[in-house]
């Protein structure tokens, strides 16, 4: 099993990160892989409802930013931790 945790706080090492880190440490004790992604000040645009993702059927947004990479990381993930 793998968990992908998104830290949406503007403070990379703030309280949200420390809370996610505490949870991830407990999960690792149970042999669960954890990846923490820091969203913080990334230049990410919102959905523009162009439906290219549905038309292309490739799970990729027409807007080329880091979200496409993150979508692939969470593919098949059953649990997702978000902190904002």
Summarize, please:
The protein has about 80 residues and is α/β, with parallel strands linked by helices. About 35% of the residues lie in helices and about 20% in strands. Keywords: Flavoprotein, FMN.
What does this structure look like?
The chain is an alpha/beta fold. The protein has one domain (2-83). The chain is 35% helix and 20% strand. It has 3 helices and 3 strands. It is flat.
Distance between the termini: 24 Å
Considering DSSP H and I runs of 4 or more, what fraction of the residues is helical? 25-40%
Indicate the radius of gyration in whole angstroms: 14 Å
**What letter string, H or E per element, gives the SSE order?**
EHEHHE
Task: Specify the overall morphology.
Answer: flat
Question: Secondary-structure blueprint of this entry?
Answer:
Layout: E1 2-7, H1 15-29, E2 33-38, H2 52-56, H3 66-74, E3 79-83
Parallel strand pairs: 1-2, 1-3
Keywords: Flavoprotein, FMN
Protein name: Flavodoxin family protein
GO molecular function: oxidoreductase activity
Quick tags:
84 residues; alpha/beta; 3-stranded parallel β-sheet; 3 helices
């Amino acid at each position: 099993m793998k968990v992908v945790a998104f830290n949406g706080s503007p403070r990379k090492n703030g309280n949200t990160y420390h809370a996610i880190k505490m949870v991830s440490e407990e999960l690792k004790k149970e042999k669960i892989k954890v990846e923490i992604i820091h969203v913080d000040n990334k230049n990410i645009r919102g959905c523009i409802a162009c439906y290219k993702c549905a038309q292309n059927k490739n799970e990729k947004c027409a807007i080329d930013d880091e979200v496409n990479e993150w979508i692939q990381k969470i593919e098949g993930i059953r649990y997702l931790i978000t902190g904002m």
